[in-house]
Amino acid sequence: MTHSSPAAGSFLPVGSWTRPEAVALNRLPMTTFLREGADVLSLDGPWSFTLLDRPGGIVRCGTTVQVPGCWTMQDVGDPPQYTNIQMPFPGPPPHVPDEDPTGVYRRQVEVPADWQGSRVVLQVGGADSVLYVEVDGRAVGMGTDSRLAQEFELTDLVTPGRPCELVLTVVRWSAASYLEDQDHWYHAGLHRSVLLYRTPRVHLADVRAVADRDPETGVGQLTVHATTGEARSEGAQVRVHLDGAPVGRATARWEHRTNVSTNAYRFTGRGATVSAEVPGVEAWSAEHPRLHDLRVELVDADGARLDSVSLRVGFRRVEVRGHELLVNGRAVLIKGVNRHDHDPRGGKTVSRAAMRRDVELMKGHNLNAVRTSHYPNDPYFYDVCDELGMYVVDEANIETHAYLRSLLTSSEWGPAVLERVTRMALRDKNHPCVVMWSLGNESGWAPVLDAAAAWLRAYDPTRPVHYENGYLDGALAGGLTPPQSWRTPRRETDVVPPMYPSIEDLEEWATTVALPERPLIMCEYAHAMNNSGGDLDRYWAAIRRHPDLQGGFVWDWVDQALVQRLPDGTERLAYGGDFGDTPHDGPFCLNGVVAADRTPHPSLLELAHVVQPVGFAWTGGEGVRLTNEHDFTDLADVADVDWAVTVDGEDVAAGTLGRVPVAPGATTDVRVPVPPLRLHGRQVAHLSLRVGAVASWQTELARAQDAEPPAAAAGPGLPTRLALWRAPIDNETYGPRHAERWEQLGLPTAHERVQLRTETEGARVIHEVTVPDGWDDIPRVGVRLGLPPGVVAVDWLGRGPHENYSDRRAGTTVGRWRTAVDDWPVRYVHPQASGNRTGVRWLRFLDADDRVVLTVDDLDDLDVTVSRWTDEELAAAGHLEDLPAREHAYLWIDARHRGVGSGAVGPDVSAPHRIGPGTYRWSYRLR
Predict the structure, then answer these.
(1) Distance between CA atoms of residues 39 and 42, nearest Å
(2) pLDDT tens string 758-784
(3) How far apart (Å, rounded) are the C-alpha atoms in residues 122 and 457?
(4) Residue 133 CA to chain centroid, in angstroms?
(5) Does CATH number 3.40.50.300 belong to domain 329-610?
(6) Origin, by domain of life (predicted)?
(7) Which positions ≥6 away from 907 have C-beta within 8 Å?
(8) Rounded CA Rg of the chain
(9) Model confidence pLDDT, tens digit, residues 621-640
(10) 2 pLDDT band (50/70/90 cuts)?
(11) At the topology level of CATH, where does 614-703 sit?
(12) Average predicted confidence (pLDDT) for the chain
């Protein structure tokens, strides 16, 4: 039943949510949040909730919801919606739909009685997209920017020890939505924590700590600026302690701001600055995240403490010098990922445990940097990055992708842009992990962005400024193409941050085009959409060859799949359109190097290997050259260097070189005591080295030259079919759209028209096929065999253990592996071809009793896939749940198999990994 209700509250200024310039009302200035313990009252938990069809409209739902939490994930009848570029509703800006879901949160709140005499502040950690606040029916304020906290003073509106009613009204669609078009799910609600906190009336309003360190002398320079928040602080002093030791004090003096139009002064409290040298202080870096405890006290003229706060600081220096980004004097390689706030059950609400797990996973896979695409994250995420060591590009909550080159040129959006940029910096200024500020993403160019960059540089000259569209928009206007277009960066950016460049463009930039005053750091590359991540090894080979290239951020960290409960009570992972949301962009949100539950995809395992901080090169015989790519760590301080020699995947010798001293950035040669090898038949020997869990390497030492294995009796006959097609991966459905071309060529049914010539010589099966002229860049050349019933497991000798393709196998090794048949494919949320293994020389299929049912050997390093589903079934399925249950399985043996590339957005599969016309011949034995 629906009815008109006063539940909308009395404070909804008519149409304010549709006005771009209506940024905030009565919202407190942004500060670094420094309160804890008994000074904080959490309001997280159940709230009474009413969903209206529009502000002040009809009640659609009345229930209880959890805060923090997106109401779009709490079954209130307003689902999430996914779009990439297009807005979720028709424009033009700043128009919003007439039907505009509005959530009214109510809660009885009792301020603790012992807060009497204190200042009381409400903090709403994140409200998507416009927030209105009332207490006992009295208007308090409003604000926009759904990714930064909003604070409102309640001191004169609440009575400690007496309950009051707090009403938070959130409007889903607003003018602010046009600034948050960020290739992610659109959610709504209070998605971060809500709390009250108290301060003394005379209090420390904010603390800014700049902890610089000279990399040449090791001398730190600590500058602490504290502001007080109350006029009654005559004679007050600020005292600063570092790691428990006093470092200085200063008297708080008047500060003010000038209203330019009236030339009037506005009191903003008092301020005091304390500076001190800290000799021999250890530097903070992603490798050694050394933090120090800073305590700031406000005392009155008699020395009595009025207020105190604590925070952690790290001493480091970040600068752009020439064409390099330097951290503590070293040109660090940025081995990063882009990260959305995402939880498969919570949407935009991510727990602290999940944030920490993300950073631990990144660190555990050799990553050292993260870009908060495309908005500031929860403050706790930065605390973890400070603690564990990650370089952060902190990005303002601005993306106008649907109106890329027009929206911000209108002056009415200027206040919102400046508020979003400045509030981000004011909140996150003390985090050593933040090494660059970013103005946002894909919002074109406008004078207000120059103004925002100028403000950042004036306020914080210790960090460079990044902006992806800082070169692109002007380049498009000038008709230039990459890499020439990268030479035209505007004033907003101190780095050249191309998006999805080809390796060829990077090489050309580094050799002929590069700017002497800006480093190139890819803000997005290697779009990791499901089965993707090709050529990562070639990207990093180019980066290591050229000092003008300094790494980048893979797009992106996590698949943005959401758990959806179906009518029968079961659950599935859902993507755009699955909730009935329209318009939508389907599975384009599934582009993480980890699954939604944080299971690493093969693309992350490949990335971890190609960015590993130790390089290896075989110099022949027993010689191996080690390169230490750490910036601040000697290799001897990392782990032992262990070695092993294998023949056909079995260890024949192993040992350790112990701790090998190699200075940061240096190279040394070591000798590995490889034993004499006697190889027979078609045996292959490999040498492997490993440095703890940080780095590994394998090279082929020798290969036996015996021509053919002994003849064997005829093997079992298996149903065999030519295979020239695979279920398209998303890189073939989007981007170049090869899937459409293959359909037009008739590749899915090519086995009916293209002749497969097959011969048998005892147990050996020999295939030959001619791919016609004009069939350029096809998916595979191989055969599909039906496996005997009862097969449940596979042993094989080849590259593994995980899925790999010709352009994504650097992170695998040749060895003997085993897996269940059901675990051979990768269960990407959007079904597609998966599970290929390269360099396979033999396979054994086993039943439930571990008996060998079938052996396939004498393969000449071929590509192999095992699956219970055909390519036709995979291509027809929208979700894994659509695939049929089946007992039997299939085996594909391919002479050639196409790579995966990253062509959904970015470069297609490179030439060496494509398949063209010609005659192909391959063989194997069945036993």
Answers:
(1) 10
(2) 999 888 999 999 999 999 999 999 999
(3) 31
(4) 33
(5) no
(6) Bacteria
(7) 500, 502, 503, 535, 901
(8) 31
(9) 889 999 999 999 999 999 99
(10) very low
(11) Immunoglobulin-like (2.60.40)
(12) 93
The pLDDT of residue 317 is: 99
- Catalytic-labelled residue, pool 287, 442, 629, 803: 442
Sheet holding 220-228, edge to edge: 204-213, 220-228, 264-278, 253-259
Q: Determine the pLDDT at residue 717.
A: 76
Please, are residues 602 and 826 in contact by the beta-carbon 8 Å criterion? yes
Compute CA 54 distance to the chain's CA centroid, rounded to the nearest angstrom. 34
734 pLDDT higher than 90:
yes
Q: Could you tell me whether strands 399-400 and 391-395 are parallel, antiparallel, or unpaired per DSSP bridges?
A: unpaired
Query: Smallest Cα–Cα separation from 402: which of 585, 530, 610, 219?
Result: 585
CB atoms within 10 A of CB 266: 9
Distance of alpha carbon 98 from alpha carbon 373, whole angstroms:
30
- The residue whose two tokens read 């009916």 is 752
State yes or no: pLDDT of 466 exceeds 70: yes
Can you give 879-910 as a three-state secondary structure string?
CHHHCCCCCCCEEEEEEEECCCCCCCCCCCCC
User: Is 593:554 a contact under the CB 8 Å cutoff?
Assistant: yes
How far is it, in rounded angstroms, from Cα 40 to Cα 223?
Answer: 28
What CATH architecture applies to the domain 6-199? Sandwich (2.60)
30 φ, ψ (degrees, to nearest 5) = -70, 140
Cα–Cα dist 749/741, whole Å: 13
Helices (H), 514-601: 536-545
pLDDT score for 480: 67
Structure tokens at 541: 């080979």
724-926: same fold as 614-703? Answer: no
Residue 442 annotated to the active site = yes
Reported as half-sphere exposure (CB side, CA atoms, 13 A), residue 823 has a value of 11
Q: Taking residues 8-13, report their average pLDDT.
A: 57
Stated pTM of the model: 0.95
Cis before 344 (ω within 30): no
Phi/psi of residue 717, each to 5°? -85, 125
- Going by the DSSP 8-state scheme, the letter that residue 231 receives in this structure is S
Please report where in the chains the tokens 């007050």 appear, as a residue. 236
Domain ranges of the chain: 6-199, 329-610, 614-703, 724-926
Alpha carbon distance 462, 315 (integer Å): 12
What is the CATH number assigned to the segment(s) 724-926?
Answer: 2.70.98.10
Classify burial at 155, counting beta carbons within 10 Å of its beta carbon; exposed 0-12, middle 13-18, buried 19 or more: middle
The yes-or-no answer on residue 180 being catalytic is: no
Nearest-CA neighbor of 665 among 695, 641, 639, 635?
635
Choosing from 180, 395, 419, 524, the catalytic residue is: 524
